[in-house]
Specification:
The complex is a heterodimer. Chain A is an alpha/beta fold. Chain A contains 13 helices and 13 strands. Chain A starts with a strand and ends in a 13-residue tail after the last helix. In chain B, β6 and β7 form a beta hairpin. The chains are: A alpha/beta, B alpha/beta.
Chain lengths: 436, 508
């Protein structure tokens, strides 16, 4: 008897099969994921979830009988019947006797096939056709990691790096060049000598001398000489890591309700999830503002309510200051998302736009403005409603496919569509928009 | 009850415990039950690995295909929702016999699983004639690993999609890919693998591009009667995959090999379908005897014996048809009860048993009777011979006929003197897997003309094929055959064609 511990064997042997299954049902899964994501909260987005796809797409057909005209059921548990009794036909899909064993039709075909997606798979599919606009600076990155790579051979090194094939090749060529006698040659010489000695031939001395020469030569020329040794050489090289910083700007003045903040939070979180999938390193900066702005931690950012007027420019100035201090635009990819209910001090609009246009946009990869409204403001076509003061201030900056995009959201479930719209992969050259 | 040193206390176990348990079971299995087993290999695995193994038909190595992924997500969903617990064990018909046990099971469960799988199933695999006829436990793992590598290399060479389509088609016809009667020599999978390698080398050796350029006579079509042609093709042939592999005109050699793999693996699993009740009955009977003996010997304490009984009784529970959990006959329950019953008849027969089982009743040696049963029957013949009136009464079995044109169901026989034989015959027929599955044969092919392939499905008692699924399978079949395929549903008695399904190969 043998006991084998297989627990350390890699599990997930079915990973590959699973991937194949998902690939096969990709389109259906995509649709299901879109539908599922509409219902999910941000917190749930992080969790794996169950989705359902039409069972038809994954059917494995086989030849089997259709339910025939006659069925024979052998059932246990007779309490009252004797032969010849008639039983009223039980209603359809009645459990009792409904599934006759062995009729081949035992496998009911549900209309939906349900299964769990891991978080990774869910996000992959969800974010699959999204793409970050303007990745111009991605190659510029902080060097925070060193890698090793092969770089030829060296004559020195540690034994574990000995390049055996290369070493033996050199040894072989040296042995050939220095005419090191092979062991067969010596054996043959010995045999000749022995034969000659047995016969008592005349050339014993010659043979003996030749053999001596051969042996000495073999002794002098080593099989493996230190000069043959070669070691694999490695060199260090810097591994650049693309990094990004994401600025979350939000108006926290009294006019922002819990509802609008919730929508804003969802948007920020989606953006964060999305960016973490594209960048190894991502930092978050939260800036909240009323008529003055401050950098705060996440908790304060979403929870606390401030009173005061609204000056958006203060937040943009704060952002600029932080960029100057900590995030050199040459080595950081800068993303910003601003959420506001659209209020701004009338006199501040001009300055805000100028800041954004002249200072911030040139530094950033992307700047998204989300105008969040309470849901009783029914959503109007975002392109025609210049209703809020900030909206009208920003409107001239928005261009198709540009770095600056703005959208208006009033309902929680609209967050996903808006998010998708913002990051939809654009066909090169083809303009994107509703008018198409 | 004696009080020997306990094998273990509490739930915990380690590898030393497993070995002690195995060594305590072994003498009981060998001396008392007279089991004859393959050497055992116990493998401890995690829950995730158990889920993995589930999906790949329980085998540790298997080729890759999306359908296993589908099965995997299905099991995973069910498991993660807590709807269903995992099996405690998987056992593989191989030599050595591999049993997987789960790390999180308690020591008692490990004992039970070993007694059940490593001894009960193991004995059955080694001795039952169906397994001896159709499976090659020595080489199955090697063959599976060959299959996986071969299919992986095909994927590399011909693309994933192509291989996937081929496997889809093969899987659809899997049930029609087994030989049901032993007219050929038993398979030897090791030989198979070697044969494929040799054939490959031979082809490479003989290949010479020049031959292509040599003008030759155009091949003459084999003349002769249609009958002769049919005989040459081995028609009628019920093993459709075999026929396609040998005769489909447009398949390339790697495609034939892949079909062969699907077919051989289907054949390997075939005996398991035929012996579900017996196999589980044998294993359950063995574990019951062994656990009881361990307890009597004082090797396990009362607590773990109760834990065992709890698990045992839930495994062999048979809900009555009117109870909510009823889902057909539970093979564990039927198998175990029948084994117990056979043992009872051998030791304490009633006068009735002496009439029904004159050869068996009162022999006194229940183990030799059971071993003989385990070796020489499959489910249908086993039930047809050994289901006793006493057991039918215990189960209160009755037979209901459901004819769709009648507004009522009719009870045709019950557990009484008039009904025993009919009841037994009917139940046995349900377990006659070959008779239950549709009988489809390749009957004709027109090789000289349009190359149309004709199949017949023999319709008995008005049972047609499920048309919707049949159509999908026909598409696969046509893709493999490469030309038109026609499936006729023929009345078994009159030979009249009742229904037809046709499919055409996609023109390429």
């Amino acid at each position: 008897m043998r006991i084998v511990d297989r627990r350390l064997n890699p599990s997930g042997k079915n990973f590959e099969n699973r991937q194949r299954f998902l690939r096969r049902v990709k389109r259906m899964v995509e649709r299901a994921v879109r539908e599922a994501s509409g219902e999910r909260s941000i917190e749930e987005l992080e969790n794996p979830g169950e989705i359902a796809i039409p069972a038809d797409g994954v059917r494995q057909p086989s030849f089997h009988h259709a339910p025939g005209a006659r069925r024979d059921l052998i059932l246990p548990g007779n309490r009252e019947y004797i032969e010849g009794d008639r039983i009223a036909r039980p209603p359809e899909d009645d459990g009792a006797g409904g599934k006759g064993a062995g009729s081949g039709g035992g496998k009911g075909r549900p209309d939906l096939f349900r299964f769990m997606l891991t978080r990774e798979e869910f996000l992959n599919i969800f974010l699959d056709d999204l793409e970050l606009p303007d990745l111009a600076k991605r190659r510029i990155a902080l060097v925070d990691k060193e890698g090793l790579r092969r770089a030829g051979y060296a004559t020195t090194g540690t034994p574990n790096n000995l390049a055996i094939a290369r070493t033996l090749r050199l040894s072989l060529s040296r042995r050939i060049a220095l005419a090191r006698p092979k062991s067969e040659t010596i054996v043959r010489a010995e045999e000749e000598l022995a034969a000659a000695m047995a016969e008592g031939g005349a050339n014993i001395e010659n043979l003996r001398r030749d053999l001596e020469v051969l042996r000495r030569r073999r002794g002098r020329v080593a099989y493996l000489d230190p000069v043959d040794l070669r070691y694999r050489r490695f060199e260090r090289f810097p591994k650049p890591v693309a990094q990004a910083v994401m600025f979350c700007l939000m108006d926290v003045s009294g006019s922002m309700t819990e509802h609008t903040k919730d929508i804003a939070k969802r948007f920020f979180m989606l953006l964060h999830v999305f960016l973490t999938r594209r960048y190894k390193r991502i930092e978050l900066v939260f800036i909240r503002h009323t008529d003055e702005a401050a950098e705060v931690d996440e908790e304060t950012f979403f929870r606390s309510v401030e009173t005061g007027g609204t000056m958006v420019s203060s937040a943009l100035e704060e952002m600029l200051r932080i960029v100057k201090d900590r995030y050199d635009p040459t080595s950081w990819n800068i993303y910003a998302a601003q959420a506001s209910d659209g209020d701004n001090l009338m006199g501040d609009n001009e300055r805000t736009r100028a800041l954004l246009q002249n200072d911030i946009l040139p530094l950033s990869q992307y700047f998204a403005y989300i105008e969040v409204r309470d849901s009783f403001f029914e959503e109007v076509n975002p392109f025609d409603g210049g209703t809020s003061s900030l909206w009208s201030a920003y409107a001239p900056l928005q261009r198709e496919g540009g770095r600056f995009q703005m959208r208006r959201v009033s309902k929680r479930e609209k967050i996903y569509p808006v998010f998708r719209e913002l990051f939809q992969r654009r066909e090169a050259g083809a303009p994107h928009g509703d008018h198409e | 009850m004696k009080s020997g040193p306990l094998l273990f206390q509490g739930k915990d176990w380690n590898f030393e415990t497993l070995r002690r348990i195995h060594d305590a079971i072994e003498p009981i299995a060998e001396k008392e039950l007279g089991l004859d087993i393959f050497p055992n290999q116990i493998e401890v695995i995690t829950v995730e690995q158990m889920l993995d193994a589930y999906a790949a038909t329980g085998m540790p190595i298997f080729y890759r295909h999306w359908s296993f992924g589908k099965k995997f997500v299905q099991h995973q969903t069910v498991y993660e929702k807590g709807l269903q617990d995992l099996a405690y064990e998987i056992v593989i018909n191989s030599n050595p016999c591999i049993s997987y046990i789960m790390e999180r099971s308690s020591a008692t469960m490990q004992t039970l699983v070993m007694a059940h799988a490593a001894f009960g199933h193991n004995h059955f695999f080694k001795n039952n004639y169906q397994f001896r006829q159709w499976t090659a436990p020595e080489s199955i793992l090697d063959y599976l690993s060959f299959a996986r590598n071969y299919i992986a290399s095909c994927e590399e060479r011909y693309g994933h999609d192509e291989v996937e389509r081929l496997l889809d088609a093969g899987h659809a016809l899997m049930a029609q890919g087994v030989d049901r009667s032993p007219h050929k020599r038993p398979l030897d999978l090791q030989q198979e693998e070697k044969r494929e390698r040799d054939r490959m080398q031979e082809r490479e050796r003989l290949y010479n591009d020049l031959w292509r350029t040599v003008p030759g006579r155009s091949r003459t079509v084999v003349k002769g009667g249609k009958d002769r042609q049919r005989a040459l093709l081995g028609l009628p042939q019920e093993n459709i995959l075999y026929f396609l592999e040998k005769a489909a005109p447009r398949l390339r050699s790697w495609q034939r090999e892949v079909l062969r793999i699907v077919r051989l693996i289907a054949q390997y699993f075939y005996p398991q379908q035929l012996t579900k009740v017996m196999n589980e009955g044998c294993a359950t009977y063995c574990h019951y005897r062994i656990m009881t003996r361990l307890h009597e010997e004082g090797l396990i304490d009362n607590g773990s014996f109760l834990e065992f009984l709890h698990s045992h009784t839930s495994v062999i529970r048979q809900p009555m048809y009117y109870e909510p959990g009823y889902g057909g006959v539970n093979p564990y329950a039927l198998g175990f009860d029948m084994m117990q019953d056979i043992a009872r008849i051998a030791k304490n027969p009633t006068p009735e048993d002496r009439v029904w089982f004159p050869d068996l009743a009162g022999t006194g040696d229940e183990m030799s009777a059971l071993r003989d049963v385990w070796a020489n029957y499959r489910d249908d013949s086993f039930i047809a011979q050994f289901l006793s009136p006493a057991l039918m009464r215990k189960w209160r079995l009755f037979h209901v006929v459901d004819q769709s044109e009648l507004p009522y169901l009719e009870v045709s026989s019950i557990h009484n003197e008039r009904g025993y034989r009919e009841l037994r015959r009917r139940l046995a027929a349900e377990y006659d897997a070959p008779a239950q599955s549709p009988h489809i044969e390749v009957v004709d092919v027109d090789l000289a003309g349009a190359r149309k392939l004709v199949l017949h499905h023999q319709v008995a008692e008005g049972r047609f094929l499920d048309a919707e699924e049949a159509e999908l399978v026909m598409k696969h079949l046509a893709a493999l055959w490469g030309y038109e395929v026609l499936l006729q549903e023929v009345d078994k008695k009159s030979g009249e064609v009742l229904k037809e399904h046709a499919a055409f190969a996609a023109t390429s």
